[in-house]
Amino acid sequence: MIKPNRHYADLKDSYLFYHIAQKTKAYLAEHPGAHLYRLGIGDVSLPLCGAVIRALHEAVDDQSDKDRFHGYMPECGAPFLREAIAAHYRKRGTSLDDDEVFVSSGASDELGDILDLFDRQSSALIMEPAYPAYVDANVMAGRRILHLSSGEENGFLPEPCEEARADLLYICSPNNPTGAAFSREKLARWVDFANENGSVILFDAAYEAFIEDETVPHSIFEIDGAKTCAIEICSLSKTAGFTGTRLGYTVIPKALVRSGMRFNDMWVRNRTTKTNGVSYIIQKGGAAVFTEEGQRQIRENILVYKRNARVLMDVLDALGIWYCGGKNAPYIWLKCPGGMGSWEFFDRLLTEAQIVGTPGEGFGACGEGFFRFSTFGNPEDTKEAAARLSRLLSE
């Protein structure tokens, strides 16, 4: 009889968003017609920019013409998109070869698939609060997981320490859920730590487009020594609204070598074995993101979300509530007022102000007593939610 992967039985129930959905469903059933102000979801609300839409239409037309038709794409990504991404890095002062860039169907897929490169006996360090999939993907693989807690005392930006020694080091900056972002100086400490211990950093840069602080790097490869210890996984979901279109990319430097094996070569073999590449149409749309026009248009959309963040931060500042994030990320991580628990605060916001956010407890034990707001919502709804939050907590 075939044996299933027993490690799936070790997974904890992913109740966070299901529980939120059940609570909001029950509230709406009791209050028909009520309008909820949703500050919890991490999905974008603005459509793809004009440059991307035009490129997608052109690519569809290409597929209708025999001379311009494209079938299977190169598994590691179309040369035109790999070149555009590498050129984008070079414009920001980070030198990459085109073949160090791998096109993917999105950061979430890649964060799971990339674990194929590492022995199952390797250990993984998760800095918490954390995106739950980091933990679950390693549980499924049967890896030993180390949890490194962070908190208000260090701005949710933990430092390297003896307890952090692991083979794989997950770093998300700017972070989901906290919005906290590592400065160059703090990130350099993790790079040095990884190189000293032979670790590999899995650097989740899904939110780098929201960075406005010059002391915060957009890429880990802005840090000296990172090419010998890091893999960077990026997404166009929040950068350019590709949540429903699915496109991202991964950077694996050729200098990243362990036990005589080069991870760049290994990933080429992995992709050419396990995938048939990303759709030509989607890659053409992605290439438009990196044009001058595309960059201008996506920045305009990001500014809408950043204005949402400012509206919420102004209220929290006026109320004297501690928070981090918002400036360099689309998430605001606040301390629940009055010593309330995460779910207690959720219930109060829902029932008394019709605001839906995300309880911090769902991102790890050290998230208890904290709460996440997303800034991806409709601007008018965000303004009304901020006003309701101010009235509720001023009472």
Overview of the structural elements:
This protein has helices spanning about 15-30, 50-60, 80-90, 105-115, 130-140, 185-195, 235-240, 265-275, 280-290, 290-320, 340-355, 380-395, and strands at about 35-40, 100-105, 125-130, 145-150, 170, 200-205, 230-235, 250, 255-260, 260, 325, 330-335, 355, 360, 370-375. By secondary structure, the chain is an alpha/beta fold. The protein folds into two domains: about 5-50 and about 295-395, Aspartate Aminotransferase, domain 1 (Alpha-Beta Complex); about 50-290, Type I PLP-dependent aspartate aminotransferase-like (Major domain) (Aspartate Aminotransferase, domain 2, 3-Layer(aba) Sandwich). The strands form four sheets. Strands 2-8-7-6-5-3-4 form a seven-stranded mixed β-sheet, with helices on both faces. Strand 3, helix 5 and strand 4 (about 145-150) form a beta-alpha-beta unit. Helix 10 runs parallel beside helix 12. The longest helix has 28 residues, at about 290-320. The termini are far apart. The model has no long low-confidence stretch (mean pLDDT about 95).
